[in-house]
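# step 3/5: fold
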Amino acid sequence: MAVLAGLVFLAMLVSMAAGQMTIPFDHVLRVLGEAAGLGTVPAPAEETAVVWNIRLPRTLVGLLVGGGLALAGATLQGIFQNPLADPGMLGVSAGASVGAVLAIATGAAGAALYALPLFAVCGALGAIALTIALSMRRGGHIPVLTLLLAGVVVSMLLAAVTAAVLTAVNEQKMQAYLFWTVGGLDYRRWAHVLLALPPFLVCAALLLLFSRQLNILSLGETEARALGMRVTAWRVGLLVLASCLTASGVAVSGNIGFVGLVVPHAMRMLVGPDHRRLLPASMLAGAAFLVLCDSLGRVLGPSEIRVGIMTAFVGTPYFLYLLRKQNK
């Protein structure tokens, strides 16, 4: 955990130093020290403005989104007992996309900063509610396989709704939606940090608090019931928390894939399957991973490569490796 915490701090320094204007690490530390009132030597005014107003909010949003997606992915993989589970598998991302395209199509996204994130969160929560309703049997029983299949069906339905809405919008709104679906941290400001921070703190704290229950749930439904657990209630509760965490991240950054798939699986190989260690390790590693991918995308080419593209470049080979390993 100490190594992962150090990696997160290093990723923050790299993110605030890298870009079109390269800022030395010691100048970044000066800016942070001055803001914390430590009496350090002031950095140049231009560098202070870039770090404080542009790069620090962007970095904090990246930490919140990356940590939240990885924590949600680790939770879902424990619930479904499947290392290939992903936060978008229950229709959460598809629901957020529907909300986003409705905000853009109605013009609400251009009228208020919080409109698009609010629409996206409502769409994501509506999607998970529909998935749970379709998969729940009499007596409140929710089979895992039925839940997964319901998630696939809901995702396909919502994708069709998104496509139908897009056919009715003009080219400018179409470009705005496509730009959002790629996923990115550019133009993130302190308002986005304040938007993502409260749901992250609440959902992450509850998931970490319920790690013991997730350990029992990951044993399987029969074993969990034998130990006296109310399986359906805990499964629905953990699914809602993971979905809210995913929705809050998608709302401020757009769709960013593979973080919730790659990071928890890698951490499971390092710290083991005990969720009391796996959840915080995944959260820290996911935060560092997303911020480093964003920093890499800013320095690789003449123009910025969005972080959603960078995570896909990194995550796709690893996903294929997992599939091949599982087949063997």
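# step 4/5: annotate
Residues 319 and 325 are 10 Å apart (CA to CA).
# step 5/5: archive (pending)
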